[in-house]
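[[Sequence with tokens]]
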Amino acid sequence: MSHSNLYAALRAGFPANLDSTAVETDVGLHYSWRDLERASAMLANLLHSLDLPPASRIAVQVEKSVEALMLYLATLRTGHVFLPLNTAYQSAEIEYFIGDAQPAVVVCSGKNFGWVSKLAFKAGTQNVFTLNDDRTGSLLERAVHCSDQHAAVQRGSDDLAAILYTSGTTGRSKGAMLTHGNLLSNAQVLKDYWGWRPQGEGADVLIHALPIFHVHGLFVAIHGALLSGSKMLWMARFEPKQVVAWLPRATVFMGVPTLYVRLLAEPTLTRETCRQMRLFVAGSAPLLLETFKHWQERTGHTILERYGMSETAMLTSNPYLAADGPRRGGTVGLPLPGVGLRVQDEAGQPLPPGEIGGIEVRGPNVFPGYWRMPEKTAQEFTADGWFKTGDVGKIDEHGYVHIVGRSKDLIISGGYNVYPAEIEGYLNELPGVAESAVVGVPHPDFGEVGVAVVVAKPDAQPDADALLASLKARLANFKIPKRCFVVPELPRNTMGKVQKNLLRDKYAGLFAG
């Protein structure tokens, strides 16, 4: 087992001049590479002073900030396991994650300290800190007293670096365990494949407009910039006017399709503003062909669409270099170097090009399994060691991968995964609800949104808007269906299974135009 702490590898990519700017924020703050190194060392020493068991989980639910990035680096340095949590998660969700992951440290926003700390202490977590997006909070107050020197703890490539919770199609979330080797191999492949340019003449500058609690913003974007010593222009939350203002100073932008739709609505987005740019990457949700073409016409750039998952980081990418082939709209490109990808039928037999089946993958980037779920892990891998992604797709005659859907009825809304089974579970517990079905329908802004269809109990008359309002107290906002309908019955097949395809067809035009 080779020693390969991910932080040490990222640190090796920092430029020789540590006093140059590593991150510039949308409120005008400048952080040097030395700041990143010293502050993450202080936070690492704070974690070290807590005498945590090896490979402790550090659960983090905070607003996006450069300090939150430093906490991620500190966690890697100490050999602990980073557990980022979506800022939209509410108490029922957080209670489950804390109970399941049993973190030794929980870091939350100051405004949530009251309820988060209660849940954490009840679950046996010893240490709860606050971290706000204005550089305040007990975490930083404590870290100020720690040394700014710290040697990264030796870690093997099979040691855990992070756990990312992916909602289960059958309700409960699963913790995808990612190792130092998984993340480093993927970062190194993308650095080469996407042509990241290190500091010096023509150095890359990344506009970082994504959240940092999932793969796209935390791993793909940040690892790319750190490994190549590239400056980041950092926004707390996506603001299209700010992105357009920064484009002339940047070379790389990563976004979910929703962000591209919103940028196209800005009249100031032109070929001239994009003149310095070399790469626009899209992922986390399907990019509509219409958006792909509109972007080409407007900016002169072709968006590079790619495909990945919490369990695997990036799997495929449209070519960066013209010599490797064109970027084809409506596809997620070719398997990345070192990644195996195959399409199988339900009997586990390989399908020829053009045939639709289940997508299976393997490679150094593929996770070892789900946190404390050995049975689930065993189910998700084939006998010959390939991971069953749960995505359905095909490989065309050029070798490009097309994703056509999900094996379960996953809804991807604005780049976030929404699992109907989880929402149905909460809906069915509400007063007056006999049963419910949640389906995804097309939406011009979010790509897809949920619609809830509810059957009332006898003599009950639940109000559709009131049901959605009740969900808001329980679930993250991106999971809340956009509309709710109360109907006499759900369509079923002869086996009694709800026919969600009929519901999708019925409500498909709700948000058209």
